[in-house]
Every structure is written in C-alpha cells, then in structure tokens.
C-alpha cells in the first residue's frame, strides 16, 4: 500500500443549489478544498492503475453505481474499448448521457480531463474527451443488490468492473458488503480486474439531505475483497484528519484487485 497522505483542509463548505452532489463533491480542481484534494488523489490513483500496473487493459469495462460522473473513465478509456456506465437512478444515467451527447447543460468535467492529460505529459484534452465519449457506449440501469447487477447469468462477462462510493452507501452490514462484492464479481471474467473507490462514513450530506452510509476501516475493505475471492494487487490510501459537517469520513481508498 502506498503511504497514507493526510488532507488537512477544514473547509466545512455550505452545501447548496442545483446539481448539489456534483457541485459539492466535484468542484474545480483548485487544490484549496478538501474535496479537490480527494479528487486529485482519485485521479492520481486511477492514472497509476491504468498506466503503471502491467496488464490492466481489455475490451469491456463496467462501472456499477457510476452516479452522474465520468471522471473515473478519463484514464480507463485509453485501456478499454467499451465502457458501460450504470446506476440505479435514471437521473444519474441521464446526467452521464447528457455529457456523452455534449448537451449544453451537461456537467463540466474538462478540468478533470486536463489534469489527467497533464499527468500523462500532454494537453490533448479535446481528443481525450472524444475518446471517452466514443468508449462510453452504453449508459444503463443496474442494481448492485442483485446477484447479477446487470444482465443475467448468460450475459457476456467483463474484463474490468469498477465501482466508486456505492457499496458503502447501500449496505448495512459487513456481510452485505461482501455479498455486493460477490455480485460485482459475477460480472467479471476469471482473472478480470476490479477497481474499488471507497470512502466509508456513517453519513454524507447532499444539500440538506442526510444520506446514510456504512463505516468500516481500511483493514475491512481489504479483508472483504479477499473474502469475495479477489486478490488485492495494489491499494492507495489517503487519511483525513479534519472534521466536516457534511461527511464523517476518515480515509479514502482506491484498490485494484483481481478475480481469482
Ligand atoms: C455516492 S454516489 C457515487 C457516485 C459515483 N460513483 C461517484 O464516484 O461519485 C452512490 C451512487 O450509488 C447509486 N446507487 C444506489 N443504490 C444503488 C444500487 N442498488 N445499485 C446501483 N447503484 C446504486 C446512487 O444512485 C448513486 O449514484
């Protein structure tokens, strides 16, 4: 595991407005807010996974619980030909589709794309956005609680399953956490890659709405993956020391694992 970094910001930002989730959790990458530092950590970790770990590539990648986001595909789209973005919520699926369709009211991810292009040592942001839009071939419904979150037992399997900040938002026991990992694993080929982004907390806020969340520690995140039949290949951890009223998280973790 890479050494833990500490985010010292204490910017207990007021949550407000339309598209509250995106605006609050995916602000401009100006390095002065804790959310930006978390997002830089995510982009750095995903860049490392898709560029430095040998063999993380393939034909099809699926994101379970993608929300309204595409930042998680900026590095991945260079290694996978086809990306399927899924979520339980139609509103979130529509937000991704609006970005793919270049609708004027789509969320602006270009700063995130620019940051990753710079990590890669170039500035072809426009080309990368085109590559992402070409790769995201399907935006569809999924339900993580199902044995097969999308499709059925005879659907084609994926080379990579990615999921970010979803399991901790929908389970209420450690046993269920492992069960949902098993559900994700059911979509994966043997030897396929699994990428998990997580930020366990007791709650997080979207505007005035208090969303419940399931808090576990770093050891459990890794243990659960092993219990679900994955081998952990690499993990990235950043610890948070300051308290915030909108989420009582203590760390953010990105884990690359492989299905046995
Ligand atoms: C905290 S958001 C994370 C979104 C995104 N992955 C990100 O990185 O910000 C959790 C997401 O899980 C989705 N979700 C909730 N229950 C789900 C379920 N049973 N199956 C799939 N997605 C679900 C929500 O609609 C929401 O988009």
From TrEMBL:
Pfam families reported in the protein's UniProt record: NNMT_PNMT_TEMT
Query: Keywords of this protein's UniProt record, alphabetized?
Result: Methyltransferase, S-adenosyl-L-methionine, Transferase
The UniProt record lists the keyword Chaperone: no
InterPro entries, sorted: NNMT_TEMT_trans, SAM-dep_methyltransferase, SAM-dependent_MTases_sf
Q: Which domain of life is it from?
A: Eukaryota
Family of this protein: Belongs to the class I-like SAM-binding methyltransferase superfamily. NNMT/PNMT/TEMT family.
Q: In its UniProt entry, what is this protein called? A: Nicotinamide N-methyltransferase-like isoform X2
What organism is recorded for this protein? Saccoglossus kowalevskii
């Amino acid at each position: 595991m890479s050494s833990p970094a500490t985010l010292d910001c204490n910017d207990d930002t007021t949550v407000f407005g339309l598209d509250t989730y995106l605006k609050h959790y995916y602000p401009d990458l100006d390095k002065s807010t804790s959310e930006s530092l978390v997002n830089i950590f995510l982009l750095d970790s995903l860049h490392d996974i898709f560029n430095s770990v040998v063999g993380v590539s393939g034909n099809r990648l699926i994101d379970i619980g993608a929300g309204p986001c595409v930042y998680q595909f900026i590095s991945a789209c260079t290694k996978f030909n086809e990306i399927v973005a899924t979520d339980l919520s139609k509103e979130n699926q529509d937000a991704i589709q609006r970005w793919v369709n270049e609708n004027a009211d789509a969320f602006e991810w270009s700063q995130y794309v620019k940051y990753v292009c710079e990590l890669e040592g170039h500035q072809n942001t426009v080309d990368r956005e085109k590559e992402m839009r070409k790769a995201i071939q399907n935006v569809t419904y999924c339900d993580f609680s199902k044995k097969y979150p999308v499709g059925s037992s005879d659907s084609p399997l994926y080379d990579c399953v990615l999921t970010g900040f979803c399991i901790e938002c929908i389970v209420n026991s450690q046993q269920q956490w492992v069960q949902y990992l098993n559900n994700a694993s059911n979509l994966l080929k043997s030897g396929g890659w699994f990428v998990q982004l997580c930020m366990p907390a007791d709650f997080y806020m979207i505007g005035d709405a208090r969303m419940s969340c399931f808090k576990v520690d770093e050891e459990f995140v890794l243990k659960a993956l092993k219990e679900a039949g994955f081998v952990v290949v690499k993990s990235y951890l950043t610890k948070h020391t300051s308290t915030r009223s909108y989420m009582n998280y203590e760390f953010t973790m990105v884990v690359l694992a492989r299905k046995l």
